[in-house]
Amino acid sequence: MNQAMSVTPPLGAQEAAPRRRRALAPLEPVSARARVALGVGFFVMFFAVWAFFTLGGFVSPTFLASPITMAREGWLLFTEFGFLHDIGMTVWRVLGGFILAAIVAVPLGVAMGAHKGVEAFLEPFVSFCRYLPASAFIPLLILWAGLGEVQKLLVIFIGSVFQIVLMVAVTVGNARKDLVEAAYTLGAKPSGIVRRVLIPGAAPDIAEILRLVLGWAWTYVIVAELIGSSSGIGHMITDSQALLNTGQIIFGIIIIGLIGLVSDSFFKYINRRMFAWSALR
Amino acid sequence: MSQLSIQGVSRTFTSEKGKSTQALLPVDFDVKENDFVTILGPSGCGKSTMLRIVAGLDHPTSGRVLLDGRPVEGPGADRGMVFQSYTLFPWLTIEQNIRFGLRERGMPESQQKERAQYFIAKVGLRGFEQHFPKQLSGGMQQRTAIARALANDPKILLMDEPFGALDNQTRVLMQELLLGIWEAERKTVMFVTHDIDEAIFMANRVAVFSARPGRIKSEIAVNLPHPRHYTIKTSPEFMDLKARLTEEIRAESMAAEAH
């Protein structure tokens, strides 16, 4: 035993190994500061390359605006063209459709995950629906619901609801069997098992599923707005295309990315606060 | 009169392909009120299956289980269970875990808290009430599980190798803790284990299981005085029992390995 101990090198020797080699090793964590620097670094590089090709005259400004033109056009959008209203419309459509989908889908998913009969009844149909592309429904929805807000909400709803149902069902169905049994031996009834074991156990994962699907809802809303719309970020983008204003198009796309990033971080923050227990190791 | 009566209980598992395996041959076994019985056997011998049938988590292929003369038809709060795996609800604090069963039966909250406090003190977890299970060591989690089962005031406490996942030192301390609680509270306990020392130290009676298909091969009374101190493990009486049980188990372990 003692002999074996003396053969292993002291801890200090490992510390002394070249830092760079360690940083390149797989699964090696990076420091918080390095993480921020690397993340920001890519954005800087991206803008630098973009600026180099556009400002350097390597691509025609008709096809790709420079970062500076983009920023100017963006400013004009807000001051002259009421872009805030467009953003507001888009955000409300995403949230409206997404919340409706969540209200319908989460209870259905829980019921499917908890009761195998419900799952056998609904799962094949929902799985089939999941592969129907939401954007392909747009022409049909325009026929049914016209060009108004209902049609936009329905696109988001169709795009999100089946995804949420299936993922929630799988999460709830994967509940730890031993926890369910423990609850039974403590006198829980079947309804208590669902309310006090399955739902709280799956809650953090359900919140993560919603965060993920909200991201997808953003892509559906833009598609819905590209066709037959009179407001919203997607509408602004199609308008700008007709005017060959690539600066506005790029600005719109960046705004979508920014809103997505902010809402995602917000969602993550809320989830971490609400389900602190699930982050414990 | 016996409180728990296992009558001709057997269990055969049938795989999806229709192949059947007999896990448990018909077993007859009685447990008196306030008795502490350990079920000793090699792993995979069906002893846990029997305990799960008593808990109502599994159904016997034949026979029946009576608790106070009434047949067991499913799980219930009158049979508390402590599992080998850590089964505390990770989203509840230690105190909320212990109150789980009390809340389920609709006890007023102030009473729930009072009762939880009593058992938290009993298993030595004062100061950890607001911790989450994952913030506690394995031994502390199992102590919480014991408190959770006891707080429900079951007629019988079923324990399925509850200390099996703990390191040896912790395990010994947990045995003393549980025995101390039993000596003070007098509960009917059925305790499954494959550890011979544990089986003797805890029990008034040891039932030895045969290798699969399981059946009760022999029963040995443990007439060591209470309260028991850990030093009893080196006494000649203890050694005698250990030698006997070692012989009994050895034959079964060899049979189990030969399969």
Describe this structure in words.
Chain A: Residues 87-267 form the ABC transmembrane type-1 domain. Chain A: Its main location: membrane. Chain A: The chain crosses the membrane at residues 36-59, 91-113, 125-147, 153-172, 217-237, 249-267. The complex is a heterodimer of chains A (281) and B (259). Chain A is mainly alpha-helical and 281 residues long. Chain A has a single domain (70-274), classed as Orthogonal Bundle (MetI-like fold). Chain A is 78% helix and 0% strand. Chain A contains 13 helices and no strands. Chain A has helices at 2-7, 11-15, 19-24, 32-55, 67-80, 83-114, 116-130, 138-145, 149-173, 177-185, 190-226, 233-242, 246-274. In chain A, α6 (83-114) runs antiparallel to α11 and α12 (233-242) runs antiparallel to α13. The longest helix of chain A has 37 residues, at 190-226. The two termini of chain A are 31 Å apart. The model of chain A is unreliable at 1-6 (pLDDT under 50). Chain B has 259 residues and is α/β, with parallel strands linked by helices. Chain B folds into 2 domains: 2-78 and 155-230, Rossmann fold; 86-153, no CATH class. Chain B has helices at residues 47-55, 94-104, 109-122, 138-151, 168-185, 196-202, 236-258; strands spanning 2-14, 20-32, 36-40, 62-67, 70-71, 79-82, 156-160, 188-193, 205-209, 216-221. The longest helix of chain B is centred in the C-terminal third of the chain and has 23 residues, at 236-258. The N and C termini of chain B lie far apart (39 Å). The model of chain B has no long low-confidence stretch (mean pLDDT 90).
